[in-house]
Design goal:
Chain lengths: ~120, ~110
């Protein structure tokens, strides 16, 4: 089956620094990728949707200047958390979908802790 | 916007059937999904159903969809301790990006 990987799986950073998370589709072309965040014991909240080669569409309340999303190729999307603060600590999950297919494949998630 | 609701917690005895319920508001849903998430892990797609179907069975899993009432359920037959996890329902809308909205999640506890 289709596989989506994320790197790193966990990261600890200091407040004020930036962190980049990668999401890769390993064996299919991901025309659309999604970024979610999940707080402990809560559901997944969609942050943004990106189509390859175009700007991401952010959900209401998500700061696009803080959460930079790049979907430069059909197999890679990156999420950069800029000037991270402790409240940005969360579990970030990406998913990828090929055009026309029903299934959305999820990555294993990246746990970000900002100290 | 879209809203997907689930009860927060369900406890069943091993060997019994579990039924997890979900309601949604989006009338343009195209697909509805059930995902399983174990502690500290990502999401695993369990099953899905097209919005024009009313039932789908896949081994121990049975999905029922009442489109009129916008109600989705997941029945797990012969529940095992390995089924303990959080179960999310999700709906994919028919809009431009066809985004997927997740429910609040139901924590299933299986008692041996």
């Amino acid at each position: 089956g289709a596989v989506v990987s994320q790197h790193p799986s966990w990261v600890i950073c200091k407040s004020g620094t930036s962190v980049k998370i990668e999401c890769r589709s390993l064996d299919f072309q991901a025309t659309t990728m999604f970024w979610y965040r999940q707080f402990p014991k809560q559901s997944l909240m969609l942050m943004a949707t990106s189509n390859e080669g175009s700007k991401a569409t952010y959900e209401q309340g998500v700061e696009k200047d803080k959460f930079l999303i790049n979907h430069a190729s059909l197999t890679l999307s990156t999420l950069t958390v800029t000037s991270a603060h402790p409240e940005d600590s969360s579990f970030y999950i990406c998913s990828a979908r090929d055009r026309g297919y029903y299934e959305q494949y999820f990555g294993p998630g990246t746990r970000l802790t900002v100290t | 916007g879209e809203d997907v609701e689930q009860s927060l917690f369900l406890s069943v005895r091993e060997g019994d059937s579990s039924v997890i319920n979900c309601t949604y508001t989006d009338s343009s849903s195209t697909y509805l999904y059930w995902y399983k998430q174990e502690p500290g892990a990502g999401l695993q797609l369990l099953t899905y159903i097209f919005s024009n179907m009313d039932m789908k069975q896949d081994q121990r899993l049975t999905v029922l969809l009442n489109k009129k009432d916008k109600h989705l359920s997941l029945r797990i037959a012969d529940t095992q301790t390995g089924d303990s996890a959080i179960y999310f329902c999700a709906e994919r809308n028919g809009g431009g990006y066809q985004k997927v909205t997740f429910g609040t999640g139901t924590k299933l506890q299986v008692i041996p």
